[in-house]
Amino acid sequence: MSTLKFKTSINCANCLRAVTPFLDAEASIEKWQVDTNDPAKTLTVEGPNPIPELIMKAVAQAGFDIEPAA
Q1: Distance from CA of residue 57 to its chain's centroid?
Q2: Is the pTM of the predicted complex or chain greater than 0.85?
């Protein structure tokens, strides 16, 4: 299982509801969560082989900013 982390602009329950269908539809993601208490609003994604470009595209399509966490 691989884990990827991203900084996002997903910061509340409504944001989570908006991005959920996009992330749930991404086949390379098995499990995901956003830490809205973290100043970076860190999205953690787990899966057998998560594809960073597709994850970033899904979040962007939902209308949120995303970049790989350092």
Answers
A1: 10
A2: yes
